[in-house]
Structures are given as C-alpha cells and as structure tokens.
C-alpha cells in the first residue's frame, strides 16, 4: 500500500513539475510576442570604469566643458553656478530599433525650486556644441529628452517639477527656455528625481517609429509609463549625448551609466517595401508648424537697419526742403 502511494506520489510530482515547466515556457513565449530580443551595443554604451570615455581618438565617447570622470559617475556639472558639461558619442548611430537605459543622479544643497537646471539626453545630427538648451545648442536637429528641475514659467501650475519631457527638432524650431519648452514638447510627466536616497533610471525606447519613455524613480525596481508618442521619424547616422547646465541656481548632475540595446524586431514584407528613408526628423501629428521663437536680430541686421533708417531720414529731409523751396518760388511769382 505504501509502495503504491509512493509510486503515485512520484508520478504526481513529475506531472506537477512538467506542468510548471510548460507554463513557464508558454509565458516566456507569450512575453516574446511583446518584448523584442535585445542586444547590448557596447560601443554606444557608457559604464564604469568609463574606459571608453576620453580625449583619445580611439575612445568611443568624448568629454566637453566642465564634465569630468569620477570613480562612481561622470559629473556633467558640479553644484556651482554657471557651469556646462556634456559627453558625446564619437560614433554615428545606424540602428533602426533601439532602447537606452540611463542611470543618473541629481542632487545638491539648494532647496526645492532653488536648484537647477537639469540634464538632457540627445540623439542629434550635431555634437560637441555648447548652447543654452541644457548645455546644448538651440535649433538642434534630432531628439532631446529633458529632465527639467526648475520651473522658469510660473504662470502654469499644472506641471510639478522636476518634469521629464521630449522634443523632436528639425533645425528650425527653437526650444523656449523661459517657457520650459511648452511650445514644442511632445508631453511628459512629473518625476521626483532630486535628492533621493535610491537610484533613478530612465528608459527611452524607439521601435516602429514609436517613442516611449519610462522611468524607475521610486526605488521599486519597476518601470512606470511617462510618455508614448507614435509617428516619430528619426534619420540614422546621428549621435548620442548627455548634457547639463547650471545658471544662478545649481545642482550636481551625475551620469552613472548609459546602456544602449539594439532591439530585434520582425517586420513584414509589406512594412519593408513601404519603408522610406528619413532625411529630416518629424512627428506625424504635428501638422501645424511649431512656433519658432524669435531670439532677436543679430548685430549685422541692426547695423543695416540703422544705415537704412539714416538714409531714409536724409532723403525725407531733402524732399521736404525741395517742396518748401518750390512753394517759396511760386509765392514770389504771385507777388510780382
């Protein structure tokens, strides 16, 4: 009797183990239908001890401005006023579907809303250029992801800062810093990423022309949705970068790791046949041209405007004198 129970128990255990195994396989297969296989691209990644970062021509990444390599991170800007720093990949990027996971830390001595300005992640045509948009140039061509820690525009209270947003630029659209980019951004989400005791991460995924941003900023080791924008068209051959800037207010902006994955995405024959080369970054739903902010006339324009104004004034005075002289001549003839 005990032998029979043992045999049946053994068979039940085997069956149970087999059922658990099959369920796991089925779950794995089901997940693969939604999660593409990914491959780490080390030449586009930046991790400790940051051996691929430096001024050597053989390095894959390059420092700029006040950025400096430290044992545990790359400090883009220190907690000091008026600093700019960045790291830029030297290699143009030619992967169709990709994902980056960024480990970063923002911290400093300033109190809330007395700190700034934030950091940005880039995939752009231009590289290694200093400017006003989180340390990069304005009117950029490509994709910018912004972690903005200071509200410059106080009129709108619907956003809580820090705020994560995205922008696609085509080289003719300006990021309006005074309005926190509200004129051009694609949306975003609030995220408490400053002066926290746990690690903070961003995930940016680009797959089938859809841009997705997720975040892990609560110390729970799980991704939460921030933004999803379909119809984003990005050319290839652009450069990845990360930058930061401080002004009158400051913070430490640290980049701990930047991991890039190539995603293996299956495409149908119809998708491949209808695929066209993208030359200029664009977003489908932005049918109306985005407002371009007038940053004022240059010195040369002001000079020519001044010259034309003086010439016009002189011509006007000469014309008035001629009219006055003719009127006097006619008055004399009538008198005689």
TrEMBL record:
Signal peptide: 1-17
Pfam families: Lectin_leg-like
A Gene Ontology molecular function term of the record: D-mannose binding
UniProt membrane topology term: Single-pass type I membrane protein; Single-pass membrane protein
Subcellular location: Endomembrane system; Golgi apparatus membrane
Residues annotated as domain L-type lectin-like: 38-263
Top-level taxon of the source organism: Eukaryota
GO biological process: endoplasmic reticulum to Golgi vesicle-mediated transport
Keywords, in A-Z order: Disulfide bond, Glycoprotein, Golgi apparatus, Lectin, Membrane, Metal-binding, Signal, Transmembrane, Transmembrane helix
Cellular component GO terms held in the UniProt record: COPII-coated ER to Golgi transport vesicle; endoplasmic reticulum membrane; endoplasmic reticulum-Golgi intermediate compartment; Golgi membrane
Bilayer-crossing regions: 299-323
UniProt protein name: Lectin, mannose-binding 2-like b
């Amino acid at each position: 009797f005990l032998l029979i129970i043992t045999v049946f128990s053994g068979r039940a255990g085997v069956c149970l183990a087999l059922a658990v195994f099959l369920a796991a396989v089925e779950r794995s297969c089901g997940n693969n239908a939604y999660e593409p296989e990914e491959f780490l691209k080390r030449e586009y990644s930046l991790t400790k001890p940051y051996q691929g970062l430096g001024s050597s021509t053989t390095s894959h990444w390059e420092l700029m401005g006040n950025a400096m390599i430290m044992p545990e991170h790359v400090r883009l800007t220190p907690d000091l006023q008026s600093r700019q720093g960045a790291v830029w990949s030297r290699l143009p990027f030619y992967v169709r579907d990709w994902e980056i996971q960024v480990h970063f830390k923002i911290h400093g001595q300033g109190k809330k809303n007395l700190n700034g300005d934030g950091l940005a992640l880039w995939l752009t045509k231009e590289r290694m250029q200093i400017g006003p948009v989180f340390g990069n140039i304005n009117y950029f061509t490509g994709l910018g992801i912004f972690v903005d820690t200071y509200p410059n525009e106080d009129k709108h209270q619907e956003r809580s800062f820090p705020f994560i947003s995205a922008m696609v630029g085509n080289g003719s659209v300006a990021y309006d810093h005074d309005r926190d980019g509200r004129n051009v951004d694609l949306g975003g989400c609030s995220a408490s990423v400053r002066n926290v005791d746990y690690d903070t991460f961003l995930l940016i995924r680009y797959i089938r022309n859809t841009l997705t941003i997720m975040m892990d900023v609560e110390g729970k080791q799980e991704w939460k949705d921030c933004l999803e924008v379909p119809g984003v068209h990005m050319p290839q051959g652009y450069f990845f970068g990360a930058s930061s800037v401080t002004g009158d207010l400051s913070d430490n902006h640290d980049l701990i790791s930047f991991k890039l994955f190539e995603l293996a995405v299956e495409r149908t024959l119809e998708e491949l046949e209808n695929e066209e080369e993208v030359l200029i970054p664009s977003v489908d739903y932005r049918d109306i041209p985005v407002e371009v902010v007038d940053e004022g006339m240059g010195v040369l324009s002001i000079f020519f405007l001044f010259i034309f104004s003086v010439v016009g004034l002189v011509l006007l005075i000469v014309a008035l004198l001629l009219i006055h002289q003719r009127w006097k001549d006619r008055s004399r003839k009538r008198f005689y």
